[in-house]
UniProtKB/TrEMBL annotation:
Similarity comment: Belongs to the G-protein coupled receptor 1 family.
Protein name listed in UniProt: Sphingosine-1-phosphate receptor 3
Feature: compositional bias, Low complexity: 337-356
Keywords noted in UniProt: Cell membrane, Disulfide bond, G-protein coupled receptor, Glycoprotein, Membrane, Receptor, Transducer, Transmembrane, Transmembrane helix
InterPro entries in alphabetical order: EDG3_rcpt, GPCR_Rhodpsn, GPCR_Rhodpsn_7TM, S1P_rcpt
Record keyword Signal present: no
Species this protein is from: Gadus morhua (Atlantic cod)
Cellular component terms (Gene Ontology): plasma membrane
Membrane topology, record value: Multi-pass membrane protein
Bridged cysteine pairs (disulfide): 170-177, 261-267
Localization terms from the record: Cell membrane
Principal location listed in the UniProt entry: membrane
Region (Disordered): 318-388
Bilayer-crossing regions: 36-56, 68-90, 110-126, 146-168, 188-212, 233-255, 275-294
């Protein structure tokens, strides 16, 4: 049965005129090609991020501050895939059969999941910046900061997503309705755009600041090595910020057009929102590649889960030859810790040993070796190796 309230809103915004006729492009109630492609992408996003979560949860070496943030990001991205998948299954002819409350839940879950993903990216940038500024090694006793940031991400995302169902909507005020989201108020959409634009600016500024700190802290390293690491870190910064901008800017621009467009019929791009939303969701598929698979340790854990016994067989056959192959395939921008790698750490230890007794330098060397190895040190090594 068609819900009269949804019908009025979809008819007023013109979305009814741009909906495919029942059965168009399908046969026997089957799913159309576009929806099928989106469903496959969503399934891939869910599986990809699920593997990342399992890899982090099953390996104690990943139980440290930075990997908690990466795990939370993977959870947000996985839920984004699930939310969009459910959204697709409840779209089409089923849309007008939903109650307004269920419609708000359908769309709000997308806002919450995608919003939490963006806030998680900001939390990762904040944590890395704090690590660089304080220049202290990883301390398990200070995990409260991790859970405080993660909890804040979810509280803000849930609050933003719940605003429409709590009353900030256009029910009873059709002229204020968004065209892309017919039950959402244009003022609410504009409010979300402002927040996400501020987040984008904050993420960009923080990563630019991190790059500046790393570049300035490597003055004692040889010029050739310094330029190599600066270029490697710059490449990673460009990838992180560039992918985020590429995936999210189109939907931001579309929503800005939605808010600004006075005559809906003259803005036909507003009725092609599915592709813009899909591009934003695609960011959830790219995040695991950037934040996890670029790390050597995470790549090993990921391959161990995907390959299973086959990887173990290859390792036993090749002996020590399997590990160098991973080393050779490692990207220069494997993690933020690679901005100042183990060789740099050892150079600083040698410089310190010139001004310290022999016994003291030996202890520092042992601590340096411990800090330069393992996944926990990769993300804190930058802070440890950057003197004022």
């Amino acid at each position: 049965m068609i819900n009269n309230e949804l019908y009025r809103h979809y008819n007023f915004t013109g979305k009814l005129d741009h909906r495919p006729a029942s059965g168009e492009g399908t046969s026997g109630g089957s799913v159309d090609t576009k929806t099928l492609v989106f469903l496959v992408i969503c399934s891939f996003i869910v599986l990809e991020n699920l593997v990342v979560l399992v890899a982090i949860g099953s390996n104690k070496r990943f139980h440290n501050r930075m990997y908690y943030f990466i795990g939370n990001l993977a959870l947000c991205d996985m839920l984004s895939g699930v939310a969009y998948l459910v959204n697709l299954l409840l779209s089409g002819d089923k849309t007008l059969q939903l109650s307004p409350a269920l419609w708000f839940v359908r769309e709000g879950s997308m806002f919450v999941a995608l919003g939490a993903s963006i806030f998680s990216l900001l939390a990762i940038a904040i944590e890395r910046h704090l690590t660089m500024v304080k220049m202290r090694p990883y301390d398990r006793k200070k995990n409260y900061r991790v859970f405080l940031l993660i909890g804040t991400c979810w509280i803000i995302a849930l609050s933003l997503g719940a605003l429409p169902i709590m009353g900030w909507n256009c029910l009873g005020d059709l002229p204020d309705c968004s065209t892309v989201l017919p039950l959402y108020s244009k003022r609410y959409v504009a409010f979300c755009i402002i927040i996400y634009m501020v987040l984008l600016l904050a993420i960009s500024v923080l990563y630019a600041r991190i790059y500046t700190l790393v570049k300035s802290s490597s003055q004692k390293v040889s010029k050739q090595r310094q330029s190599e690491h600066a270029l490697s870190l710059l490449r990673t910064v460009v990838i992180v910020v560039g992918v985020f901008i590429a995936c999210w800017t189109p939907i931001f621009v579309l929503l800005l057009v939605d808010v600004a467009c006075k005559q809906r019929r003259r803005c036909p791009v507003l009725y092609k929102a599915d592709w813009f939303i899909a591009l934003a969701v695609l960011n959830s598929a790219v995040n695991p590649v950037i934040y996890t698979l670029a790390s050597r340790e995470m790549r090993r854990g990921f391959l161990g889960l995907v390959c299973g016994p086959f990887c173990k067989i290859q390792t036993s056959v090749n002996g020590s030859g399997a590990r160098p192959s991973l080393e050779q395939s490692r990207s220069k921008s494997k993690s933020w810790g690679s901005g100042i790698n183990q060789n740099q750490n050892q150079n600083q230890i040698q410089n310190q040993s010139q001004n310290q007794p022999h016994g003291s330098s030996r202890k520092e060397g042992e601590r340096g070796n411990e800090a330069g190895s393992g996944p926990a040190a990769q993300d804190t090594l930058v802070g440890q190796a950057c003197p004022d």
